[in-house]
Design a protein that fits this description.
The protein is an alpha+beta fold and 291 residues long. It is 27% helix and 22% strand. This is Methionine sulfoxide reductase.
């Protein structure tokens, strides 16, 4: 993997303030602006341009991160992206967002067709990654791009994905690098697949840099014994919509540790070091001892 050089300019001298982000060999620009600092940002000429943007916050209803992806064309008042943000601030159905990220170019080169394509792609990437609840309603149209322009936009997307991640949002990053379909587990994952099996559960998972992921299609125990940790009971309630009536997970779920994942799957107090095993029967504990 080739290294990337990213420049982060803390416009207010602190990480909680406004941030401008550029990437070597990329004509794009990204700005991360807190909702409370919109007025101080009116002098930023690049926010007066056309571009796409993301609004980030937390859903009170579902207690999970939420994102809205939109586009903004240059208006007669010359405010572009910033003008759309001001409109969202006044909208009662979007009072959940606390930070906004703008994606534009140094030469203000985005037209309506390019923005529609980017909005569509970013929205679908966020849905596929499954980390955030996507607040967009209908799927945006892709526009009608030439092959050359589509290639150019895909290159912009590849760089923008890196920049968004560097700003602290993994909205486009799947929990595991290589996805799978229900029951069709890809064996070429960087970490060995681990399995939990009992009379009431049959699950597959793997370690990642962020924790432990239980894969969609896994069947979890539909019963919770008294010894089930309280935090796991809460996780079951929080993820009720992600569990089918037959106990099969509808999406990949990330847990802080293998033990929390095992407790969630088995519906009891369990040690992840011994509950998770390779297909050869090697426990996670033994696996770590061999590393």
């Amino acid at each position: 993997m080739v290294g990337k050089v990213i420049n982060l300019f803390l416009m207010d001298g602190e990480p909680s303030g406004r941030i401008k982000c550029t990437l070597a060999n990329w004509t794009g620009l990204a700005y991360k602006i807190p909702r409370t600092m919109m007025d101080q940002s009116k002098s930023i000429k690049y926010l007066q341009q056309s571009g796409v943007y993301l609004l980030f916050g937390v859903s009170d209803e579902f207690d999970e991160p939420i994102v809205y992806i939109g586009q903004a064309g240059t208006r007669k008042n010359g405010l572009g992206i910033l003008n759309r943000w001001e409109e969202h601030k006044r909208s009662s159905d979007k009072d959940w967002w606390t930070e906004a990220v703008a994606l534009t170019t140094a030469n203000n080169s985005f037209g309506p067709t390019e923005m529609s394509y980017l909005e569509n792609r970013f929205r679908n990437m966020a849905v596929e990654a499954g980390r955030y609840r996507v607040h967009n309603g209908n799927e945006p149209t892709t526009g009608n791009l030439t092959e050359e322009k589509e290639s150019e936009m895909e290159e912009f997307i590849s760089y923008a994905r890196i920049v968004i991640g560097a700003l602290g949002y993994k909205v486009f990053e799947p929990l595991i690098a290589k996805k799978h379909n229900f029951g069709n587990i890809i064996e070429s994952a960087p970490e060995p697949l681990l399995y939990y099996h009992s009379s009431k559960a049959d699950a597959t998972g793997l370690r990642t840099a962020e924790g432990f992921v239980v894969l969609s299609g896994s069947k979890i125990s539909q019963e919770l014994v008294k010894s089930t940790p309280d935090n796991v009971v809460g996780l079951r309630e929080k993820n009720a919509a992600n569990i089918g009536v037959d106990g099969v997970l509808k999406k990949d779920l990330l847990f802080a540790s293998p033990s929390t994942a095992a407790c969630f799957v088995g519906g009891a107090s369990l040690s992840g070091k011994t509950a998770w095993k390779t297909k050869e029967g090697i426990t996670l504990k033994q696996l770590e001892e061999q590393e």
